[in-house]
Amino acid sequence: MSSETQKILTTDGVPLEVSLKKAEKRNKIKAFLLVAPLLLFLLITYIFPIAEMFTRSIDDRMVTNMLPKTFKSMEKWDGKELPSEEIFKSFYEDYKVLVEKKEHGKLGQRLNKEKNGFNSILKRLFRKISRNKIDESASIKEQIIGIHRHYSNVDYWRAIKRTAPPYTMNKYLKGMDMFLNEDGNITQVEEDRRIHRILWLRTLEIALFVTIFCFLMGYPIAHLLATLPMKYSNLLMICVLLPFWTSLLVRTASWMILLQQQGLVNDFFVLIGLVSDDNRPEMMYNKVGTYVAMTQILLPFMVLPLYSVMKTISPSLVRAGKSLGGTPFTAFWKIYFPLTIPGIGAGCLLVFILAIGYYITPALVGGASGTLISNQIAYHMKTTLDWSFASAMGLMLLTGVMVVYWIYNKLVGVDNIKLG
Amino acid sequence: MSKNPEFVKFDKVDKSYDGKVLVVKDLQLDIAEGEFITMLGPSGSGKTTCLMMLAGFETPTNGEILLDGNIISNIPPHKRGIGMVFQNYALFPHMTVYENLAFPLRVRKVDKVEIDKKVDKALSMVSLNGFETRMPAQLSGGQQQRVAVARALVFDPSVVLMDEPLGALDKNLRESMQYEIKHIHESIGVTVVYVTHDQSEALTMSNRIAVFNDGKVQQLSSPADLYEKPVNSFVAEFIGENNTFNGEVSEVSGNKCKVKLSNAEIVSNAISVKSKGEKTTVSLRPERALIEPTEKMENMFSGKIEEVIYHGDHTRVRVNLLGNPEFILKVPNSTSNLELKVSQEIKVGWNSHDARALDPK
After folding, report:
1. Which of A141, A164, A187 is the last residue before a domain boundary?
2. Consecutive H or E run containing A205
């Protein structure tokens, strides 16, 4: 049989496939138009900023643009001996342009980061140029070396060459307390200056423990919510959600009132004789405060997914487990618990991801130990204005979250997540 | 080995959930070893509550439940050794068929070889060999149901409870499962307590049926007795079809009585009437009333046909008889059948022993 005879036609004589495609196409366009605003919104608010963040974090074109001639003449320089007259001359020309444009200060700051002392020797060169003391007909190399002996130190020229590529990993290395040393190797910073690594670990630790605490507290609550009769469970649900509807700052402030040394909790401990009046424990401005406040704030994010999963588990399953001879614990552990894993996964993932990016609450109640990586990002965004470093750390945080998500996907499977 | 006639015993059991309403009232019920007993009743009649008390998920408010002579009211469900098939099967969705069946054996610390043997045996009992590695979601409703039955039996319990296990199946499957469960019961001789609201299911499967209404057992007897000899109006109404006449007793003589209706008097079996003047409801099965009877019968009346419904093997005829417009007759489809037409006047007759004067409705 030939394919011609197999072709099914509609009553109008149009091939069925064509007709179907036509009919479907209209629906597809409609569906796309419906989601288009959301797509656009996501593109503008999410994809573009992340792309922008990424370019900013690796962007190092400033010096490249400031010293175009220098880098061009440096292309063939092997970096072992002192640069040739040509390189000195093009560097001098580039720098002169900068001086005319009054941009030489920026170059000094940038190069000083690469090699200490660079700023001061550049300032000397600046003074010579501004007083027109350089004789352009004579050897530039000799004149510059004459300004300061450091100009004859090959390390300084290597520093310039290192800044040649328009892109750099420096910000990322800095986020991990590492840097590229003069030989171009990745090196750790001195031990007493490794601040970021402490912050990363602290952030992970706090997020992990808050997730565990939320799970331990949220599981029984969610179970109670799912099994209580409607009229009680509604009330309990409101109690769970109430903090959700309160401003984050108000909640944090109320924890400060409760937990401080002269606070209500301590007063109560003294009242019932648990601690003596002059020996009140510190529950705030340390990790205890951070854990308590963050657990309370993030608890609903654990309870809600758990609740929605538990609600779907038929009570007859646990009954069946018991009637078949399982002790209440066996029935729970072998039957109920495995069925709640999708909820546990969703809750833990949510809480962990939220906790990893928290900074107001820990900063307010956590004291010195309340500085997390997000505080550091905010600090560089607002105070030092080192946006590229903030971007780099933000992206590192994002990568961390992605890794957690990936691990989770391997362990539980993302399809198993149930958010409600 | 003699069978214990009081293997399961409900002794004066009361149950109330809220302290105001009794869901089960003074229940007295003995179940013999190896018996298939069905608790039948409309929803809210207390039958499932009784089952849950036996399984241990509810505690009696008053009275005791005995299993093989031992009071079990204080024994938790998992130590009672009672198998149960739930309404929605309650198969563990995260376990395979094999794991579902092995669960009761594993918690009893049965060794691996024995588990394999027992699971295999239980699966062959419900003809599901080869399904061990399937997940419950991959099975059809009927197959899930069989797995649930096999799981309730795999650990050789002395009693198996079934809570409307066939409720979710379609009609044909339900019927074939009824026979299957009945055969399983016959072949292994386990005591089965079965709860349903479907009377035909109860009649097909049970040795005895306990009809529940309003927290009380209305009648406990064999399926035949339940249908032929209902002891009160509720049972007569609930089991099978029923024609009723409401009237007043005008005469009682021995086990017969005369009941005066508004325009006639009928002779009937005196079941729950004692004396003249009592109000009563007379119950008569549709198939016991004959149309145009050839021989003389104690009750003979004429009425007008209101409706004729063809049912294939029989024809249902609705007649307005003695002031009851809902009187139903079942006329078997035979060659000698009469031409029945609406608004035709016909004679209807029945014998007094087929009519039962019961408590008034």
Report:
1. A164
2. helix A195-227
Q: Are residues A86 and A51 in the same domain?
A: no
Given phi > 0 = left and psi -120 to 50 = alpha, else beta, which region is B26?
left
Chain-centre distance for alpha carbon A151: 41
Residue A189 lies in a domain: no
pLDDT per residue over B250-305, tens digit each? 888 778 888 888 778 888 887 777 777 788 888 888 888 888 877 888 888 888 88
Residue A180 included in any domain = no
Q: Choose, out of A324, A337, A418, the residue to mutate when testing the contact with B (most B CBs < 10 Å).
A: A324
B53/A282 Cα distance (integer angstroms): 53
CATH number at B8-233? 3.40.50.300
Q: What percent of chain A has pLDDT over 70?
A: 96
Residues A368 and A270 in one domain: yes
Instruction: Please count the residue pairs, one from chain A and one from chain B, whose beta carbons lie less than 8 angstroms apart.
Output: 69
Assess: ipTM above 0.95: no
A148 phi and psi angles, rounded to 5 deg:
-155, 140
- In the block, residue with structure tokens 């608010």: A45
Cα(A353)–Cα(B74) distance, integer angstroms: 48
Q: Which CATH architecture has domain B241-358?
A: Beta Barrel (2.40)
Residue A338: list chain B partners with CB under 8 A: 94
The answer to whether B358 faces chain A, any CB pair under 8 Å, is no
| Per-residue pLDDT band at A2 (split at 50, 70, 90) | very low
Is residue A204 domain-shared with residue A327, that is, in the same domain?
A: yes
Q: State pLDDT tens for residues B140-178.
A: 888 898 899 999 999 889 899 998 888 878 888 888 888
Q: Does B56 touch chain A (CB under 8 A)?
A: yes
State whether residue B9 sits within 8 Å of chain A by CB: no
Domain that holds residue A39: 3-58
